[in-house]
Amino acid sequence: MVRWLREPLPMLDDLSARYGTAFSIKVPRLPQPMVFFSDPAAVKQIWSGDPEDLRAGEANVILRSVLGGNSLLLLDGARHLRERRLMLPPFHGERMKAYGTAMRDATMRELERWPIGKTISFAESMQSITLEVIMRTIFGVGEEAKLAPLRDALVRWTTLGTSRIGTAMLLLVPPDQAERLQRFARSGLGRLLPWAPLVSAQQETDRLVRELIAARRVEDTTGREDVLSMLLAARDERGQRMTDDELRDEMLTMLVAGHETTATTLAWTIHHLLEHPAWLAKVRAQLAEVVGDRPVEPGDLERLTLLDATIKETLRLTPIIPLVARRVAKPMTIGGYDLPVGAIAMASIYLVHRRADLWPDPTRFDPMRFVGAKIDPTHYFPFGGGTRRCLGMAFANYEMKVVLATVLSRVQLGAAPGPRIKVVRRGITLAPSDGMPVVVTRRGA
Ligand code: HEM
Fold it and tell me: Residue 153 phi/psi, 5° resolution?
């Protein structure tokens, strides 16, 4: 367990070298083992199995104290299906153009703040952009006066949530105890506990998000394009609206699932680009041809094939989430192994992405693997798969292209001096160390 927390990837490498494409770990607290699969045939079974028998919500239970019991990530069965249907329309690929301007403008504002010749944390800067984008496109908050308190609360909450104490609370404390510890931290002496600031930041975020929902309910939302307004107008097949509790949990889910994940992938992409200057030059040359000096437009994105391949290769080699989990609810055989009820079946993103038979010379960064290629969803799945595949995949891909196209066509970056970048754990994601330091060498491409 200690090794899993401290160095998850070397541990997965060692176990797969020793035991092959299926192995299991017994962890304290879980009565049944966690079983890791890295064989595409087993992954296919996990994607296509009945969601009633392979339950993602139950496997994600550690997130309950953070996101609330109505979160899409925590639901299974009919409730998951209902909620997912209500949430799909704002995330449909076609909708992305409506969010493109907010994504580009947030990037341009952030670029203005970058000092020339000084080291900055690229990961932190990307977090500012992805948070701003979520507040404008998902929460629909535009005016600075309303944005500032929400931004402050969200920054405080997500920073504390991904700190050591936040990560330990998430991964080590069982959900019911976490909720008890949270209640205690809100009272009297409890305020002195080390996790009390995290609990108070969560409470403040909760208060502001609930206020936002209440205010938006009574506003005229005709013509509004943000996700919250679309969810407020949505009705299920029985004509029912989402409740305030459901909306709160889903707003926090989209924030937690979409903010750090996208920012960290952007940071890994810059890491790989700076390590491969010849490829970076090719990406820039295509950007110069397609975008030139003007701001990036939605129509440019599908012509930026090399940038697209760069992001895909980054997510192959350094996926920020190394596995997806399903709790087995009925005895079944996966990959030739009989699993009991309660076992956690894992499709190992990291191990499948590094199989030499699927990806020749797997540790080499080579985006050309993805140019013009059709990829099998059991060989490559950074966004998970089956009925639970990431809801925000189109959103994240669109945002990453807009942000990188804007950055790379406006500034030149270099790696900052210092130790080699390694993988570190931040909450549930795997990030580049030291906040991915870079130096802005000059403005203009
Ligand atoms: C590079 C960025 C991202 C990565 C790598 C990523 C990855 C993932 C993964 C691996 C899952 C689990 C899938 C499974 O269990 O099969 C997931 C689920 C989810 N993601 Fe993302 N994600 C990203 C960005 C986003 C964004 C931007 C949003 C929303 C704004 C989002 C919202 C969600 C939601 C709501 C789920 C739960 C879906 C369900 O259970 O039905 N994600 N994501």
Answer: -65, -45
**Helices first, then strands: H and E counts in the chain:** 18, 12
445 band by pLDDT with thresholds 50, 70 and 90: low
pLDDT digits (tens, 9 = 90+) for 343-369: 999 999 999 999 999 999 999 999 999
Of 67, 293, 247, 285, which is closest to residue 140 (Cα–Cα)? 247
User: Mean pLDDT of all residues in the chain?
Assistant: 92
Q: Distance between CA 383 and CA 324 in Å, rounded? A: 9
Q: Cα dihedral angle (290, 291, 296, 302), rounded to 10 degrees?
A: 10
Q: Residue 78: which CATH number?
A: 1.10.630.10
Provide the domain limits for residue 46. Answer: 2-443
C-alpha 131 to ligand 1 mean position (Å): 16
Amino acid at 224: R
Buried b vs exposed e over 175-210: b needs ≥16 C-beta within 10 Å?
beebeebbebbeeeeeeeeebbbbbbbbebbbebbe
Residue 254 tokens read as 């989209």
Structurally, the chain folds into a number of domains equal to 1
Query: Which residue, judged by its Cα, is nearest atom 12 of ligand 1?
Result: 384
N residues, the chain = 445
Residue to mutate (ligand 1; options 139, 265, 383; most atoms within 8 A of CB): 383
- What's the first-to-final CA gap in the chain, in angstroms? 46
Report which protein residue has its CA nearest ligand 1's atom 31: 392
Cα–Cα dist 253/211, whole Å: 17
State both tokens at 150: 């929400």
CA dihedral of residues 15, 16, 20, 23 (deg, nearest 10): 50
pLDDT in tens, 130-157: 999 999 999 999 887 888 888 898 888 8
